[in-house]
Amino acid sequence: MAHSRNPRGRPRPASKGASSQGSIQTRSQRQLRVGEELRHALSHLLARGELRDPHLADISLTVTEVRVSPDLKNATAFVVPLGGGEPEPVIAALNHAAGFLRSQLGHEVELRHTPRLAFQADHSFDEAARINAILHHPRVAQDVAAEDAATEDGAANDQAADDDTGPDDR
């Protein structure tokens, strides 16, 4: 594997290769802690119902995660409307109210700079339901049951072989 070099000819350190969504391994403890604090504060603000947007009236929201940039200047909040429904108008309304929510967060959370907010729909629950449906599909369940039976047969054969071996054979 060829290493890239900086302008002085020295090898560059290997990058962590973060994905577009970022993985939990590449985020610092501070980012995780600030994100969780922002998530709690946003949940509290949204529960108070101070937003006057008609798309947000009488809608309960769950803030599932807040991802904060390494410089703590930007934050992306992942939101799910409770009870289902279309998340697009809710996300658009939240992004429209992001400035107001940012100013309110500034009063709730003690940070040097309150991060700029962006909202996105959280599709992780949909993805989990899709994977669960795949795993419970009859054809997949049949394959899993066959693998479990083969594993149990192999373990039973190993146990029988151990029982046949006497203390003198060891």
Distance between the termini: 48 Å
Tally of discrete structural domains: 2
Binned, the helix content reads 40-55%
What is the mean pLDDT?
A: 78
Largest sheet: 3 strands, mixed
Which sequence of SSEs, written as H and E, runs from N to C? HEEHHEHH
Beta-strand segment tally: 3
| Rg over C-alpha atoms, rounded to the nearest angstrom | 26 Å
Strand content: 5-15%
Number of contiguous helices: 5
CATH topology of the largest domain: GMP Synthetase, Chain A, domain 3
Task: Write a compact overview of the structure shown.
The chain is of the alpha+beta class and 170 residues long. It contains 5 helices and 3 strands; from the N terminus they run αββααβαα.
Can you tell me about this structure?
The protein is of the alpha+beta class and 170 residues long. The protein has 2 domains: 25-122, K homology (KH) domain (GMP Synthetase, Chain A, domain 3), CATH 3.30.300; 130-161. The chain is 47% helix and 13% strand. The chain is built from 5 helices and 3 strands. It has a 3-stranded mixed β-sheet. Strand 1 and strand 2 (74-81) form a beta hairpin. Helix 1 crosses helix 3. The longest helix is centred in the last third of the chain and has 27 residues, at 138-164. The two termini are 48 Å apart.
